[in-house]
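Narrative progress, year one. The postdoctoral researcher (J.K.) led the effort to move from monomer predictions toward full complexes, under supervision of the PI. The following entry was the first complex the group processed end to end, covering 854 residues in total.
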Amino acid sequence: MSTTSIPVTIIAGFLGCGKTSLLNHLLANAKGRRLAALVNDFGALNIDSELIAAQNGNQISLANGCVCCSIGDDLTKALAEVMMQSTRPDHIVIEASGVADPARIAAFTQVDRDLRLDGIVTLVDATAHHLHADDPHLADNYHRQVTAAHFLLISKTDLVAEGTVQSLETTLQQAKPETPIAAIAHGQFDSDIILGLGVDAPHETPLSDAIRHDFRHWAGHMPAHVPRADVIAALATLAPNLLRAKGVLADDDGAYVLHYAGGQVTTSAFDGVPSGHFVLIGKPDLPNNEDLDALLKKQKECA
Amino acid sequence: MNKIYRAKSIITMNPNQPRATHIAVRDGHILAVGDASTIDQWQASWGEMDIDTQFADNTLLPGFVEGHSHMMEGLFWQYEYVGFYDREGPDGTVHAGLTSIDGVVARLRAINQAREDQTAPLIAWGFDPIFFEGRRMSKADLDGVSTECAVIVLHASLHILNTNSFVMDKAGVTAGDNNEHVRRDEDGQPSGEFLGQLGMYMAMRTTGLDLLGAAGSAQTLVNFANVARQTGVTTATDLANPLPEKDVETMRQTVNQDDFPMRLVVAFQGSGGDPEAGVAHIQGLQDKQSDKLRFSLVKLVADGSIQGFSARLKWPGYFNGADNGLWYIEPERLKDLVAAYNAAGIQIHIHTNGDECTEVALDAIEAALRAAPWADHRHTLQHCQMANRAQFKRMAKLGVGVNLFSNHLYYWGDAHISTTMGPERAARLDDAGGALAEGVPVAIHSDAPVTALAPLFTAWCAVNRRSSQGVQLGGDTEKLSVAQALRAITLGAAYSLRMDGEIGSLEVGKRADMAILADDPLSVDPEGLKDIDVCGTMVGGRVHMNAKPDA
Ligand SMILES: [Zn+2]
């Protein structure tokens, strides 16, 4: 993996769970990124013909610089073709088939220096969760998808009662306590978050500090000297509601960069003066700002 | 054009005239079948015909029909064969089996050193580590072949490949998470062995080659047909192919040549994408068919393989405790696909390996037939290796045929007993006897290039049910008789392709397609079935004798 590697986001979930709506949303809200979306079925995407700049064979080019590629029977070939084109995309989004194991797809990034995993987003259909989780033919697939996820999205929440969503959220949280969970309706979700999980991001990547509409954002300065174990312990208490965190701090072993994504903390030595700057992005259920200030022993307001 | 061939014996597969010695051929078809006493009558009615005695010492059978093979067989002969067993190439050369990893390395090193361009990728195929007592091939082994070019060794199963360091460095392989698709050495580092699509992706990215892309070059087709001819096959299948226009054109130009020694049935690969588009694609190909080239089927792949632990099994699952396999098509989507192709009147062949997958496929077919009844659909389950008697009964009721992967009994039988299925369920692996007893139309196949294309060997497997270690799987109820096995590799497979009206038996009016054998398979010891020499074939009345490699 190099710093110029292309991030790969995998969208998993069963047939009919809303992957296509989410893909449509991401393509329409790419925000300047040239996305390459590898999809199972063009037809289902239903791209507005006015947005199509060109279509040839297995590829549709959109006016905003994104392309859609049909996976057909062969993800290997579809992905290799995208990577062997003269202009490479900024970000690749792969629609996993309803019964694919997304972890296996993620492994592609391990055998290509030009790819890195950004994250696996698994959609769980609020209207059909029980059908999938209890189906003898599908239950194991369902659990594979949930287990592999770095971000769980409960989809079609507009079609079920509030209580259903809550109990589903509790079930998922018990199954995967460290993975952030959010609800999604009509396939709409902030593309910066979906495409910014940064599970395997090089540490140089700046964490966007835009405040997400539905999401909590906290930034501040930690004490110059904080043992990394203390920070990790503090973050663990936030785990289910925490999406990402990043800071440059120092302890007895020297300056370090701490990175939290996809439920995992990584630290690495930092060659420079630690700023103490620390950023969190999480769900609305994160503790309030005062509690976060206290937890992270915030020193002063961040500029 | 008119000729009477005299043979030592002719096995016709026509129940009303099972044996003959003379067969008259006109315009590519069979004009008459009989013996010395009927010739005068033929000449009186049909005119003077020469009597050709070149097959006087041979036994003639209907040309063999391989109902499940892949054109890739022809592609692979452009790579280097490094399998454990001897294998005969398209030119008749026998490529000696390699019985150690060092042997494989030594052969590839010699091939590389003899090459003009030693920087081009070196690709080998047919490697099978189950015979090497636990030692796995590593990147260090293949670095012994070359460090200056990509060296890639495909395993016989096609699910695994090995590479040298050159490939891994170029790809930038990272240790990554613990991942069952990147095999590790004792130090936890990637060993050079990659599973599933990962390996194929790496190969494609580092060499630009699609190793399994049978994309029908003329050379691939000719190699495929020549291997088929060597083994008595007159009709083979490519299951399946996306059938892009360019490849269809190459097929037409190659297969329709008079001297191309084989008929080819190509199934459209329908697993991915939209079934309406698939239906339209197949319909658009109907007027591009010929007597030698057919585009009549759609193939759907619903699960993985048993030896790769990716087949979907019913309880209690894999004998070694491995997780259940993977659906390659969602059960819901399989229903939609089957319904769409069935409603359009397109025959469907579904790859199912595990018994759970067979059940789901039968559910899909049953639902499709309820919605759009079709009396003679001949939908067929391919491989269908773990089907039980209840499933065969259901298949018989639904009119579903089966094409069983009998070669598995030999190649992976031991692994099925010890690791994948355990002894009881391994006993019913590829239960051709059970399927016939329940009234299911039966064919048997090689899945070439996964195993060697050789219908007499496939018949031997179904008759003897013996593994490579000599262990018998199941008992007499699972076995086929020699006569039943011969039917399965001729009329049985022809039926599964809806071609039994024109090929599969030697009867008046049918196409003059024959396998020319040195011995009579109904007279030899059933143990010796696989060793019968194939002298050549006749396809549409044209004789294609086998190449005899320079001694
Ligand atoms: Zn096959």
